[in-house]
Amino acid sequence: MKIKRMMFVLLALVAVSLVFALTASAETVKGTGTITAQGSGMAIVRGDGEVVIHGHGGGSVYVKGADVLQAVGIGMRSDLPGGGVLFLGWRGTIRAAGDDLAVWMMGKSVEFTATGTGWVYLQGRGTYTINGEDGEWTARGEHLPLAPQ
Question: Which one-letter DSSP state was computed for residue 141?
């Protein structure tokens, strides 16, 4: 059981590293505002502010750069070297806040609200609202500033 858990954590870390490497080089536009999103796929939030994630017991969440990190619920939490925290199968609420915050979420039921200055990357199927304007996730993926389009 312990070996299986370690393998799952290692695979999740590799996926997180690849995602951040791919999105770090992308041209992004920052904005200030609030997004509420729910869907199936991958979501990344980068910037200064707060992200509240509602976990439904599946998927994974990786948080780096949080000055405040609160997690209420059940699931696996791993504090990683370098200051990142990985949540697997979390059922409950995770709240992360800080400057230069990075939050990566992946699963069949991704649900979060982010407020601050920065950008969001959404890939998969779902819906979102940024400052009162509605949109849909795409299979190709899209960077969105936290501001009205």
Answer: -
